[in-house]
Amino acid sequence: MKKTKLLLLLLMNAGMLTNVAAEEAELPLSGPAYEMADAAYKSYARGDYAQAVQQAKEAVRLRPDVARLRQLQAQAEAAQRSQQPAATPVPVKAKAAGNPAYSAADKAYKAYAAKNYAGAVSHAQQAVRLAPANSAYWTLLINSQLAAQRLNDADQSVNEALQRFGPNSSFARQRAVVNQGLAEQAGAQTYQALQEQDFTRAANAAQRAVSYAPERRVYRLLLVQSLLSANRLEEAEQALAPLLQKGNDPVALVWRGYIRQRQNQRAAASADFTQALSLRGELTTEEMVNLRLIVADAGLSAGEPDATLEVLQTLDGNAAVAARKRSAAELRLRQAQQGNIAGNTAMPLPSLRCRSTGNTEVCSLVPGAAPADPAFASADAAYKALAKNDYPLALGKAREALQQSPGNPAYQLLLVNILSRDGQLDAAEREATLALEQGNRDPELRAQRGRVRQALGKASSADEDFKQVLQSQQASLPLQIEMLSRLGQRDEARQRFNAGLEAGAFAGMSKVELAYLAATAGDSPRAYTLFDQSYQEGSLPPAAIPDTGYAALNARRDPYASTYFRRTVDAVDRGDISLAPQQLFETRRAIADIERTWGATASLNYRGASLQPGSGIAPSGTNNSAQIGGEVYWRPFGYRSGRPIEVYASVFETVYNKDHSITGAPTAQGGVGVRWKPFSETNLIVALQRQIKIGSASGDGDWLARLAYSNSFGTDLRVDQPSWWSGQIFGEVGRYIDHEQTYSIFEGQLGRTYRLDQINPKLTVTPHLVIGSDFNSSLKAPAEKTAIGMGPGVNVRYWFREDHYKAPQSYVDFSLQYRFKLWGDDRAEGVVLRTTFSY
After folding, report:
1. Contact by Cβ (8 Å): 822, 791
2. Within this chain, do residues 833 and 713 fall inside the same structural domain, yes or no?
3. Nearest alpha-carbon partner for 147 in 178, 176, 179, 107
4. Is position 160 within any domain?
5. DSSP string, 230-267
6. Is 821 in contact with 838 (CB distance < 8 Å)?
7. What pLDDT is attached to residue 339?
8. Based on C-alpha coordinates, what's the Rg of the chain?
């Protein structure tokens, strides 16, 4: 019996049993409706009435014009209630009977099933024209128009159907479906217009969406967002009214608070924000964090750092929170230093964020950000090119960004920075000045102009820029610290840095960022400690490794400086950082200098006026003599960050004299002493030594105090260019205490150095011009005491003793000059020969 019943149901479902409708020809099932109906019949046949009910409901939804589907649904529901087999539902099949309207509708259903919605609309329109009284054809037409996204046509068809069949017909439900489609279309248009920043178009579209679906909260929120973006505050407040009337809507409260703050009603705005914060049960944790950030933005905008910090007090571990805490602490510190400072920035507009959950949307607010910039793509390309040191591309993209967004302060600063990095300092100064004259009040731009002017040697103009930045209420605390440092006010810079630390103004800054700021403030020990902690934690960027080395050097921690410079070389080898060849060479030079603990020098000098600088021998009165000598020194305390103390021993003797005076071993004179370089940045040497009589013809032992100064440029080897300008000066004053004798030596050179790569890249030659002088108070004739000469010369130097980490540490130097007497004794004139071996 059960098998017979199942077979009967399947045969009926296949349409083998028929029933002719009395008035209207019923169209056959097809497509999704047929599949769902077939599944419902099968579920019913196997006794799964609950499944049959659900499937029948879906079939009815797809084909509400088919009576037998509603009958199936009713019978399945009855069977489900009784859990007893019910009367077998009987599908029917109407006959076309040659009806052209039926034929057109049949084609429409088949086109719909094939997803040819345009064809379905065309055939359904024909069916409606041929049989306008058939409601099924109108339903078919409306469904086809909806599927084809012809919402306006569907809207018109529903209106006509309602006029024909009345408001109580099934087309009332179709009206709701069409309205929902129109609302969704208008909502999509709103999103698109907001993205394109066409706020007027967005507001119009959102208004349409609200009119089609007034019950949908999301469309009203989109309307408010559009109106606020268009700065139409009063209209936005009116649009909020229905939401506020319902109560307990945190989004509506926050937006009204925003409107009131924009209208300078700070107290009323605070009340709205407080009420929104009280709705904890309505918000997720993320939404509550975002709400507190929005309220913090309002506090910063109003110049209320305490209120800002209070609302953020319970939040931690969030970069956005840390940034606002830092801004509030900075503002509080500035108010303490400069008096009450009113808020000077507009509160960012909170942005709407919605997500779908089932059939509804859940909307909340996120902190506002700067609106999308049409020039963003060009500016972003400029920043990326600048990071790669591709200055031509960066300049082109920066100018392109300014064409797309004229007067944009950020892009004006970007252009100036690119020009500065590219070495176009004059152009950078012009662009900065032009931007400032056009009304750019960004303190960073004025600071950058000051940096450029400082690099151009315009000290007074640069200082004026730095002072104006300090007077600006908009200058951040880190920028203030830098300006004070550049003005030479290092104590004040460090005081502000320490005050900022105590006030929490730097909360949220990474250790690396804080390390750079500490270095700017002159707090080298703290800077190195923070850099090193970042390295140990694995958060130090490779590019900061060299800076860590210099911070250690300034903090007088030479071993650590050497370690980080070696790590710099390793990072370059791995490709983690990119250094120009000369930068890498200078890093290796720093390693060699720091790790040097001893050294030796040997020299041969011909002519009295050409003594080896630093030899501690007073010039003689003869103009034809040669001395040979050497020195060994030791640094017992190491490099001391460029302030070494050296203990040394030397011996010199005369090997030739024109007057046939005594030469050789009898003239040997030794010396032991200690010298100190007290300043790391200034090459000033203070020395005290004991002259020791070695040869029988040498002078008696004596105490010698010496003060020497030297400065140079381009005297080291360069690896980035084949030739370069070089120059040096050396001056020394000495006093023999027992013999009461004073002497002085001066020499200055200026020339062009060439690297002889075709022979050896470590070999250089330097044609130069030299001027030299000496003074000896022990000479009797006044004309003999001083000699000044000048002339051309050539120097050849070969560098050697280098390794992977250290630059060449030794050299052999040969110098030949001819000097013409300018004034004084004849010893100032003639050939000068000097050979030096430095190890």
Report:
1. no
2. yes
3. 178
4. no
5. TT-HHHHHHHHHHHHHH---HHHHHHHHHHHHHTT-HH
6. no
7. 56
8. 45
In Å, what is the CA distance from 479 to each residue of 21, 143, 472, 482?
87, 65, 11, 5
The structural domain count of the chain equals 3
Length of the chain: 839
The CATH number of whichever domain residue 404 belongs to comes to 1.25.40.10
Q: What is the CATH number of the domain that holds 616?
A: 2.40.160
The alpha carbon of 131 is separated from its chain's Cα centroid by a whole number of angstroms, namely 69
CA distance 539 to 547: 14
Two structure tokens written together for 416 = 């100036």
User: How many CA atoms are closer than 13 Å to the CA of 583, on its beta-carbon side?
Assistant: 10
What's the confidence (pLDDT) of residue 141?
87
Beta strands 723-736 and 598-606: pairing type?
Answer: unpaired
- Mapped onto helix, strand or coil, the DSSP state of residue 606 is strand
Residues 619 and 495 occupy one common structural domain:
no
The helix (run of H) or strand (run of E) holding residue 689 is: strand 684-693
State the residue for tokens 């490099």: 639
Q: Which of 560, 591, 622 is the last residue of a domain?
A: 591
Q: Are 25 and 95 in contact (CB under 8 A)?
A: yes
- CA 726 from chain centre, in angstroms, equals 38
What's phi and psi for 649, nearest 5 deg?
Answer: -140, 140
Give the position of tokens 């950000």: 369
Using CA atoms in the order 352, 355, 360, 362, what is the torsion angle rounded to 10 degrees? -50
Pairing of strands 741-755, 625-634: unpaired
Do 484 and 577 fall into the same domain?
yes
**608 and 504 part of one domain:** no
Q: Domain check: are 566 and 635 in the same one? A: no
Question: Which residues of the chain have a pLDDT value below 70?
Answer: 1-32, 34-35, 42, 44-47, 64-65, 67-68, 71, 75, 78-79, 81-98, 168-170, 317, 334, 336-345, 356-360, 370-373, 508, 608-623
- Residue 624 DSSP symbol: S
Same domain flag for 735 and 634: yes
3-state secondary structure at position 605: strand
Last residue of a domain, one of 95, 125, 146: 95
Beta bridge partners of 838: 601, 811
Q: Does 362 map to a domain?
A: no
| 481 torsion bin: left (phi>0), alpha (psi -120 to 50), beta (else) | alpha
What is residue 11's predicted lDDT score, i.e. its pLDDT?
A: 29
Question: Which sign, positive or negative, has the C-alpha torsion 370, 371, 375, 380?
Answer: positive
Residue 466's closest CA among 491, 426, 439, 493? 493
Q: Which residue has the tokens 């999301």?
A: 218
Residues 501 and 584 both lie in one domain: yes
Please, how many CA atoms are within 13 Å of residue 195, restricted to the half-sphere of its CB?
A: 6
Question: Is position 358 within any domain?
Answer: no
C-alpha count within 13 angstroms, C-beta hemisphere, residue 351:
11
Looking at the chain, the number of H-run helices and the number of E-run strands are 31, 14
CA separation, residue 146 to residues 87, 140, 375, 448, 592 (Å): 37, 10, 39, 60, 80
Residue 518 to residues 478, 542, 681, Cα–Cα distance (Å): 9, 19, 20
E strands present in 699-740: 702-713, 723-736
Question: Does 789 map to a domain?
Answer: yes
Q: What domain range includes position 403?
A: 376-591
Extended strands (E) in 263-385: 351-357, 360-366
* Phi, psi angles (nearest 5°) of residue 246: -75, -25
If asked whether residues 583 and 618 sit together in one domain, one would say no
Alpha helices in 630-717 (DSSP H): none
Contact between residue 209 and residue 187 where contact means Cβ atoms under 8 Å apart: yes
Q: What angle do CA 531, 532, 535 make, to 5 degrees?
A: 90
Backbone angles phi, psi at 103, to 5 degrees: -60, -45
Beta pairing partners, 704: 689, 736
